[in-house]
Specification:
Length: 159
């Protein structure tokens, strides 16, 4: 009986694990998703569909690449244009996390600023504050130039 419970627990834990670590993604599928999304961008009634495809494309790319974070950022912007603000904010934050993991502080900060703007549109003032604080922490990095720090801090103040 205890063995059976142990196996059931192990299976339940495995089922709950994301497959991303085992699945390196498929750049060709990402390219197909992105191409289809681009076909939808000239039709506002299909912007949401385009954003979904762009997010899928980003998820198919190697997360350590600039292309993954930029595609996720694009997805977030298109979700925002489609007025799907919760998904926009989620994608923009994911883009920031991808950029941050790669060490691209400037891109991460810009993605978090855009996420803060979306949070503001959603009336989520606590989330705006959290995202602005993340940008402030990033701008404290000695790896950013003084002009980049100033520009990013200006964006935070506008949020």
């Amino acid at each position: 009986m205890i063995k059976r419970i142990g196996w059931m627990l192990a299976i339940a834990l495995l089922v709950g694990q994301p497959l991303a670590a085992d699945d390196p993604g498929d750049p060709e599928r990402a390219a197909r998703y992105r191409a289809q999304a681009m076909d939808y961008l000239d039709r506002p009634d299909r912007w949401y569909d385009a954003a979904v495809l762009l997010r899928r494309a980003a998820e198919e790319l190697d997360p350590a690449t600039e292309d993954a974070s930029r595609t996720m950022l694009f997805a977030g912007r298109v979700f925002a244009q489609a007025k799907s603000y919760p998904r926009a904010q989620s994608a923009l934050e994911a883009a920031g996390e991808l950029a941050l993991a790669r060490g691209d502080l400037s891109h991460a900060a810009r993605a978090f600023v855009e996420a803060a703007h979306v949070a503001s549109v959603r009336g989520r003032s606590s989330e705006v504050g959290e995202l602005a604080e993340r940008v402030r922490l990033i701008t404290a990095s000695p790896l950013l130039s003084a002009s980049e720090k100033s520009r990013l801090q200006g964006l935070v103040e506008a949020a």
